[in-house]
Specification:
Blueprint lengths: L30 E8 L6 E3 L5 E2 L1 E3 L2 E2 L1 E4 L7 E13 L4 E10 L6 E9 L11 E9 L7 E9 L5 E4 L10 E7 L2
Antiparallel strand pairs: 1-13, 2-12, 3-11, 4-5, 6-11, 7-10, 7-12, 7-13, 8-9, 8-11
């Protein structure tokens, strides 16, 4: 392999330098790609277990989001929003994100969140948006798939992630690959 050392590369014309091989010029802190999922949850998920339970996208299909990093040293910035309700005051629900790497490790917990209902019992907090984000370092160029689970602190409570409802509620996932 040859190495070319220069202080500056200028465009022949215009303001861009094209790399015809399909590769890219590395820039730390710059997004290398973005993957978006709009309204991926099409089934209501009602969690009543004190053990982590898979969150479904649709009936029988787990909610997943996948990105294939271009570089093994990239950071993955994961941002999302889901709509939830939580019944029974002063009790907690927990949500976690797990990572699976194609041909490698699976079920690695990369994020967890804690949510509490309002103070009064039997108080449903309908259509409450929950925003979350985390940064992951999967150290791979294989496909990285994230999936989600939730559980309750007490079995007499209830926690739900609601489906998309046009004009009323929506959920989304945006995954950014950031160069380092």
């Amino acid at each position: 392999m040859s190495v070319l050392n220069v202080n500056e590369i200028g465009a022949r014309t215009g303001s861009q330098v094209a790399i015809t091989s399909g590769d890219y010029i590395h820039c730390a802190g710059v997004p290398l790609q973005v993957v978006t999922y709009m309204n991926p949850i099409t089934a209501n998920n009602t969690i009543t277990s004190t053990s982590f339970t898979d969150i479904e996208q649709s009936s029988g299909t787990n909610l997943t989001a996948t990105i294939t990093p271009k570089r093994a040293d990239s950071k993955i910035l994961f941002q999302g929003q889901f709509i939830s309700y939580h019944e029974y005051g002063q009790k907690y629900a927990y949500v976690q994100a797990l990572r699976d790497i194609s041909g490698g490790s699976s079920d690695t917990v990369v994020w967890n969140g804690q949510y509490r209902a309002e103070n009064s019992n039997n108080n449903y907090n309908d259509d409450f948006p929950v925003l979350y984000q985390f940064i992951d370092t999967p150290s791979t160029t294989s496909a990285v798939t994230y999936h989600f689970q939730a559980k309750l602190e007490h079995s007499d409570a209830e926690f739900a992630l609601l489906n998309y409802l046009s004009g009323v509620r929506s959920n989304s996932i945006v995954i950014w690959e950031i160069g380092v």
